[in-house]
């Protein structure tokens, strides 16, 4: 659990009344900690769904490194591609064996 998630959970625990959180409490906590409202609500929902007697874990469920790997493109290969295959982004992307969306992102 990261510090921000722990901070949100403790702020919500301090503001609860009879075990329940008012409708405006999550909004107050999100403004207080400058976090998105959905994140605060997700943390409270996970805390509520934890069975009684278990340790509350409201951390995200992503495991390890879940970021997409960067695609390395060798633009020196572009000069080796014949002119007729370089005229459009789509044909150039097919010659480089990458998607045309990826190539258009690099061209920008």
Give me some keywords for this one.
elongated; 108 residues; 2 domains; mainly alpha; 0% strand; 5 helices
TL;DR?
The protein has 108 residues and is mainly α. Helix content is 48%, strand content 0%. The chain folds into two domains: 3-48; 75-107, no CATH class.
Lay out the secondary structure.
Layout: H1 3-15, H2 23-33, H3 37-48, H4 89-96, H5 100-107
Helix pairs in contact: 1-2, 1-3, 2-3, 4-5
Instruction: Report on the biggest sheet.
Output: none
Quaternary structure state of the chains depicted: single chain
Stretches with pLDDT under 50, minimum 5 residues: none
Domain count: the total is: 2
C-alpha Rg (nearest Å): 24 Å
Per DSSP E runs of 2 or more residues, the count of β-strands stands at: 0
The pLDDT mean sits at 84
| Shape type | elongated
Number of helices: 5
Secondary-structure element pattern, one letter each? HHHHH
Report, as a whole number of angstroms, the end-to-end distance.
38 Å
Which class do the helix and strand fractions yield? mainly alpha
| Helical content band | 40-55%
Tell me the strand percentage band: under 5%
